[in-house]
DNA sequence: CAACAGCATTGATTCGCCTGCATATCTGCA
DNA sequence: TGCAGATATGCAGGCGAATCAATGCTGTTG
């Protein structure tokens, strides 16, 4: 894969939504799918949940392996994917690497999936 | 896979969110991941988008193969997955099968991903 | 009734991903 | 400098998914 990280970070994940106006294009669909793919995994969902509920809203790898029941390399791998998708941010303090959520990124996804308010009108006008 | 269809339909996709309170459990993570996996595909995102923007908010398979550039069996396959995930509903009229969105289902996902309003306070109190 | 059109299903192929093991890298400390 | 603990990366096995061609099914039409 290329750089899914920038997919959500800045430019990408544009204001277009698959549930609003005209059909999205292939490139946009692939970008959005890339980010959703990062979310669509039980281990990664649990990671996000664990980090979010951690004392300071952050957690290091060593705190996450046990609750997940996965090996340290595997956990590190999933955290990498989530970070590259723009859903997590990493901060290294000393020997430990602390991860925390990026609320705006997750919010952006939620917005894209939120159908327009009462916008059920069909464009049958054509 | 078992019945991802019921995953969103009724009981499943409970009120728990991976981004709110305490960490979600493994079973919940797998259910949510199952639905997200249905979304995390470019072809399926484009299908949802095409159907949503269709004249009556509905479309049949024959209208979808060309814009997607995929074979009819493949399109049918994706529609099946989306329907089983509870994101689409199917209605057969004559020889045609019309698909349309299930807004509540997609809204439910969006709600789960929407962080609590201004709830950024950490529970470090513990 | 026969021929045809729209969809779904099956089988086969290819590709990607999740996982763990082994190993490399980095940081702090003696 | 050398050692130990915390993370990251490479590699490989195995499972699941995406796709298409071929086939079956159902309703429509002549």
List strands and helices in order, with pairings.
2 copies of one chain form a homodimer.
Chain A: H1 5-9, H2 26-39, H3 42-52, E1 58-60, H4 61-68, H5 72-84, E2 88-93, E3 96-101, H6 103-113
Antiparallel strand pairs in A: 1-3, 2-3
Chain B binds a DNA duplex (30 and 30 nucleotides) through α5.
Question: Would you mind describing this structure in some detail?
Answer:
2 copies of one chain form a homodimer. Chain A is mainly alpha-helical. Chain A has a single domain, classed as Arc Repressor Mutant, subunit A. The first copy, chain A, has 6 helices and 3 strands. The first copy, chain A, has helices at 5-9, 26-39, 42-52, 61-68, 72-84, 103-113, and strands spanning 58-60, 88-93, 96-101. Chain A has a 3-stranded antiparallel beta sheet. In chain A, strand 2 (88-93) and strand 3 (96-101) form a beta hairpin. Chain A is elongated and about 50 Å long. The N and C termini of chain A lie far apart (39 Å). The interface between A and B is large, with 45 and 47 residues. Chain B binds a DNA duplex (30 and 30 nucleotides) through helix 5.
